[in-house]
Design brief:
heterotrimer; A mainly beta (450); B mainly alpha (288); C mainly beta (271); A: 450 residues; mainly beta; 16-stranded antiparallel beta barrel; two-stranded antiparallel sheet; 5 helices; 10% helix; B: 288 residues; mainly alpha; 40% helix; elongated
């Protein structure tokens, strides 16, 4: 995911303050434009299963699909090694969504108006980014995923590139993955059912307070590192521990700092209603607050300061209706909160570590594997601002998304969904002039994968 | 004297029906299946219903087993072995005698465990209720369930201790019962009859290779192995030996078969101590 | 965005949703009830042998009211070529090659065909000998067996492993191993049926069991000769079946105290 220049290279805090909200909006654009959602017809072709076997409604996984993924994309029936496939089988899938969409942001600083804020609305036919997913097994119990991914202009980067050693010591409780991978969020942004610019990401997975310079700690972005994970045979109990470089998945930017993401969950078979799951996570680490340059080019990050995000989640099923609940508490060092470099310069007076609480509730109604309704309400509430002079609700977010997906066919070779969505996001004090920023997206997409 | 010249269309259709060396059993019609939609299953404390199972079947199973449960799903043409045809009411993995219907629990276990070396996945992650519902729906495909009850599970005595005597007796059984004719002298699945075996859909099929595999088609425990040769795998060439093998002899055979498999086991350790070697009866006779 | 525009958007989305709900229900039910399988599948198998219950009634018959049917089953066609199998297993018992003739022709007539009256509602009692299939020199003996619904004994005279693998329409599939020296075993074939029996250990071994609906079934002897006796006078369908050539039928009238001649000729381009 293209993140742009890390904020620590900007020396002016006010510049960071005005650039950051726009970066947030642009980030939302980029995220929606280049998703890496793992709906993989190549798996359907390899194993002769329809998409509905692994996905409640693709790309959202059901319990069987989650176990397939936890096994390292293996069915564990001794036919997983690629030697069992016809030699001409090639594990490649691509996904893209040509669409018609309408975006509207209420306050954008317009140069021609002398920097005054104006509403900007765009609508028309457009493309999403493209994901090329190649994944599966290299050998029995050695799996891989490689996802070259482009934005909607065709500029490529690597969304995922990892190798995983599965079922070490013949046990599903020990698996090791290395490379660039999605964090083990069971509520995965890569398999979310909303795609619009405003609705295509969980705000909490990327949230930084207004004026905060920590662009790491984005649990929605794929990261570079090593992960150890394990699960029970039916994946009812799962855990994972990942050690990551604090570079938000960007290559060539080792920052000599590391973070850890830990998560665990347990699922209950509730009989007629379905399988419910509860769990928690912790993301803790440090990242640089400034960098040293040589001839204007960044050479090393310095001034590591820490951060953490922690929370709980639950997935509750009532037959065709299900609720996903998520809570997060976040904490960034005061240096991040005030975009101050930790190079000996003292913090501004009254600077504190910003904290926040947030959560979302997402409701799904799966009429059948070919018709799926979604609604999500998400809130972020700052509980402590970095600067006492800031308004107490500076940076608070309210986000609402609603939509549905209709799949005209469901079989084992390819997938197609007619995607319809409306999303509205409001952030307090995030406009260039510090006023409330509201953006909305309306999306009609033809989401296909082969 | 009446001679009738050949009515070719009638002849061809009937000839096809009767002239095959393996004749397929009667298919159930969609109408007959619809009448059985009230089918229930009972697995432990769970009661499954075919109506609920239909939704799960359409989600998970239909691509291979087909909408009519006849093993003619759209993916079946590329699969080997072919998916099971539920309309015949013949199942491989049972705890009941050959020629009888399996218990609901047998079907439930097969769904959860999957079938080794086939495209049938382990559906264990599905909720217990969902699997019980699928059992009821699988049963509704065959009219056999309307007129027959499942067989009684065979009696399996408690597993005795592995001893050298038992392993030697098991080897003697392996020779006497001539298991090696298909499974081979070392259990590699390369016996003299192995190449010509076909299953009930006339597709080539290989005998189980003990030398390379740790798990079986129908499980991985000693008890599962016991059941396999004492009930036979209906639908495959593997017959039931229940009429000729006594339960105690059966356990001896289980222990001997374990010595042919990879991995560690008490049976293998004892066999190594004994210096047990496979016996090739044909070599001993100076034949073949 | 004004509030009006927002609500207009939402109602548009709602309307599309309703449309999609309708479309998806239709698509889902269609895709799951009519599979897009490229091969057609045979309709339910119904042969004249697979009637579930024949409803045949045994009654006492006066000699004077019954007649007989006799005749020959002839073959008119290209010479029959035997299938040759190389024996890979148990050559000491089976020999080194096996020749299996799909049709046994002697003096122009077909032996081991089954002739029967298909639609006779009542008559004499069943009088087939007690059914037993044995395996001798790696062949099933007899090659065709007639029996009434009930128990069937299975034996193995050979000193090698055989199995009896039964494939049927109206009866269950059964597979029993009969190791050398084992005692006779028994299975039940309750319903009228045409049953194929094979040994998996020896590929060429096939035999057939006809579970008869009524006692008026007979197997043709050498030269294709057959004779059915004690047939109540009447008008019936007479049928013949041979494992490779299939079935033929004709109508026949049986007169009391007379023997009606009936024959069939199979014309074949080669088997």
């Amino acid at each position: 995911m293209q993140m742009g220049i890390p904020m620590q290279s900007s020396s002016s805090r006010s510049l960071a303050g005005s650039v950051l909200p726009i970066a947030l909006v642009l980030l939302a654009f980029e995220l929606a434009g280049s998703f890496s959602a793992n709906a993989i017809p190549a798996f359907a072709r390899k194993y002769s299963l329809p998409c509905s076997a692994c996905h409640e409604a693709w790309p959202k996984l059901n319990t069987f699909g989650q176990t397939f993924k936890d096994n390292g994309y293996q069915l564990m029936n001794e036919h997983d090694s690629p030697i069992w496939q016809n030699p001409s089988y090639w594990p490649v899938t691509f996904r893209i969504t040509p669409n018609f969409h309408r975006e509207s942001t209420n306050r954008v600083a317009i140069d021609q108006a002398g920097g005054a804020e104006q509403r900007v609305t765009n609508q028309g036919f457009d493309l999403s980014g493209l994901d090329i997913l190649t994944g599966g097994t290299l050998y029995k119990n050695i799996s891989f995923l490689l996802t070259p991914s482009s934005d909607n202009s065709g500029t490529f980067h690597f969304e995922s590139a990892w190798v995983r050693f599965d079922n070490l010591v013949k046990s599903p409780w020990l698996n090791v993955k290395a490379g660039k991978f999605e964090l083990d969020n069971i509520i995965s942004e890569k398999r979310m059912m909303s795609l619009s610019n405003n609705g295509g990401s969980f705000k909490l997975y990327h949230f930084v307070p207004v004026g905060d310079s920590n662009t790491f700690a984005q649990i929605g972005d794929n990261q570079l590192g090593v992960e150890g994970s394990g699960h029970s045979l039916d994946s009812r109990t799962r855990y994972s521990v990942a050690v990551l470089s604090s570079n938000d998945g960007n290559v060539n930017l080792p920052s000599n700092s590391y973070s850890t993401f830990v998560t665990a969950s347990h699922a209950f078979d509730t009989g007629k209603l379905g399988v419910d799951r509860v769990g928690g996570y912790l993301f803790v680490g440090e990242a640089p607050t400034f960098s040293l340059t040589s001839g204007g080019t960044t050479v090393v990050g310095r001034g590591n300061k820490s951060f953490h995000r922690e929370g709980v989640f639950g997935l509750f099923y009532l037959k065709k209706l299900d609720f996903t609940l998520y809570y997060q508490h976040g904490w960034d060092s005061a240096f991040f909160g005030t975009s101050a470099p930790a190079d000996g310069t003292p913090l501004p007076a009254g600077a504190r570590a910003p904290t926040w609480n947030g959560g979302f509730i997402e409701t799904h109604f799966t009429v059948n594997p070919q018709l799926f309704f979604i609604q999500r309400s998400e809130w972020v509430r700052m509980s402590r601002q970095a600067l006492a002079t800031s308004a107490s609700n500076l940076g608070d977010i309210d986000a609402y998304t609603a939509g549905f997906r209709w799949y005209p066919f469901m079989f084992s070779r390819a997938g197609f969904a007619f995607h319809n969505e409306y999303s509205l996001v409001r952030q307090k004090g995030a406009s260039p002039k510090g006023l409330n920023l509201t953006g909305s997206s309306l999306l009609f997409g033809f989401d296909f994968a082969f | 004297m009446h001679t009738k010249s050949m009515n070719w269309p009638l002849f061809m259709s009937i000839a096809m029906l009767f002239a095959l060396p393996v004749v397929s059993e009667g298919q159930t019609t969609e109408d007959q299946q619809r009448q059985q939609m009230g089918m229930e299953s009972h697995v432990g404390k769970l009661t499954g219903s075919a109506k609920e199972g239909q939704l799960a079947y359409q989600r998970y199973c239909i691509g291979c087993h087909g909408a009519l449960g006849d093993g003619a799903g759209e993916n079946a043409q590329w699969m080997e072995p072919r998916p099971r045809n539920f309309t015949r009411g013949t199942f491989r993995c049972r705890s009941t005698a050959t020629g009888t219907l399996p218990t609901d629990e047998d079907l439930y276990d097969t769904i959860g465990r999957g079938l080794l070396n086939s495209n049938m996945p382990q559906w264990r992650p599905l909720s217990k209720q969902e699997r019980a519902d699928l059992v009821a729906y699988v049963k509704h495909f065959s009219t056999r369930y309307a007129s027959e009850k499942p067989g009684a599970p065979i009696e399996i005595p408690a597993e005795p201790e592995v001893t050298a005597e038992r392993i030697k007796a098991g080897q003697a059984s392996f020779q006497k019962l001539e298991c090696w004719k298909c499974h081979g002298v070392e259990g590699r699945g390369n016996g003299p009859s192995a190449d010509s075996l076909t299953d009930d859909q006339n597709m080539p099929i290989k005998p189980f290779n003990f030398h390379d595999e740790t798990s079986f088609k129908c499980g991985s425990s000693d008890r599962d192995l016991y059941k396999i040769f004492m009930t036979g795998l209906d639908g495959s060439p593997m017959p039931s030996f229940a009429d000729t093998v006594k339960p105690d002899q059966a356990w001896n055979l289980v222990f001997y078969l374990r010595t042919l498999q990879p991995g560690r086991s008490k049976a293998k350790t004892i066999a190594r101590q004994l210096g047990l070697k496979p016996v090739n009866p044909e070599a001993a006779n100076g034949l073949d | 965005m004004t509030r009006n525009n927002k609500f207009r958007r939402l109602s548009l989305t709602g309307g599309l949703g309703a449309l999609a709900l309708l479309g998806s229900t239709i698509a889902w039910s269609r895709s799951t009830s009519h599979p897009a399988a490229p091969e057609g599948r045979a309709a339910s198998a119904s042969g004249s042998q697979s009637a579930a219950s024949s409803g045949y009634v045994v009654r006492t018959l006066e000699q004077s009211t019954t007649g007989a049917i006799s005749g020959r089953i002839l073959y008119n066609g290209k010479p029959v070529v035997p299938k040759r199998f190389t024996v890979t297993s148990d050559t000491s018992v089976c020999g080194t090659t096996k020749e299996i003739y799909p049709v046994r022709i002697e003096e122009g007539g077909i032996a081991d065909a089954v002739v029967w009256i298909d639609d006779i509602p009542s008559g004499k009692a069943f009088d087939f000998p007690s059914p037993l299939i044995d395996q001798k020199k790696c062949s099933f003996v007899p090659h065709i067996l007639l029996m009434k619904g009930g128990g069937l004994k299975l034996g193995n005279t050979d000193l090698c492993l055989h199995n009896i693998h039964v494939f049927a329409h109206a009866n269950r599939e059964v597979n029993k191993a009969i190791p050398p020296g084992a005692e006779t075993q028994e299975i039940t074939l309750a319903r009228a049926d045409l049953v194929t029996v094979r040994c998996d250990v020896h590929k060429w071994m096939n035999s057939y069991v006809v579970v008869a609906k009524n006692p008026y079934y007979v197997i043709t002897g050498a030269g294709g000769q057959f004779r059915l006796e004690g047939v109540p006078a009447g008008h019936y369908h007479l049928k013949v079946w041979q494992e490779s050539l299939g079935e033929l039928d004709q109508e026949i009238t049986v007169e009391p105290a007379k023997s009606t001649e009936a024959g069939f000729t199979y014309r074949s381009k080669g088997v």
